[in-house]
Design goal:
disordered C terminus, seven-stranded mixed beta sheet, alpha+beta
Length: about 280
Amino acid sequence: MPLEKAQNICDFFCKSYAKVNLFLKIVGQTQFQNKMYHLLQTRFLRVQNLYDTLEFDFDAENFEIIGEFDCPLQENLIYKAYQALLPHIKPAKRKDLTHTRVSVKKCIPTKGGLGGGSSNAAAFLKGINEALNLGLSQESLMQIGVQLGSDVAFFISDLDIANAEGRGEILTPCKSEDTPFAVRLFTPKVSCESARIFQKYAHDFYDAKKAQQTLQQEWLHMSNTEILSHDAHTNNDLLKAVLSLHPSLKEYCQDGVFLSGSGSCFWQKERNDNPNTKEKCL
């Protein structure tokens, strides 16, 4: 995700890519920052041709974010990334940062399970680190990212495909044969609140014994081919909770079509492995 010199009135811009989950399994629970979280095993795949664009310029009166968002400023992950970054940089650079304007062109559907908010936060951290020469290492940026969201670390890592554990922040590169591939996206006009989906799962579907059994199935060692041979319910433990709250999404549960994360978006592998991502909005 290199930073590029803009050709318009902004100073720099960078791309903020979407992701899909090849599988998402719940293997336990843990406490983090005084909240209970589900322990996950998942495999992230970066979607190369679906991305938001972040533009940076540095003449704002105060730190400013411009874009079409469905949340207050204080809940925006870019703003949270800005706040989390401040203690890690020198006072002179901090002053530059407080005069930054971030303009976001949104293309990734919100609350669809494609990681748009986390990707925006990661792109901001990486982009501003380069633009302002903050000198923070990738590891330092990932440590900041972990505070913001479970999949922010994946977007900072620049990996195209990776296994993830914990809350999603513990990354391991996949085996060499498990290479990235092109996907077709199905993006219904349905918004899934991740917190509500996980709450529904915890209340109606979580079983500690079943979680331990899932842990023993060694999903992280499965090949992409083996994962894609399963059905949508097998590959994503949250699908039952999603369909319980949004039954209209049942029409997408077809052979070779899978749910991404805890959102409303589904995907399938491109049969001809066309590098150009196709998107179907319904």
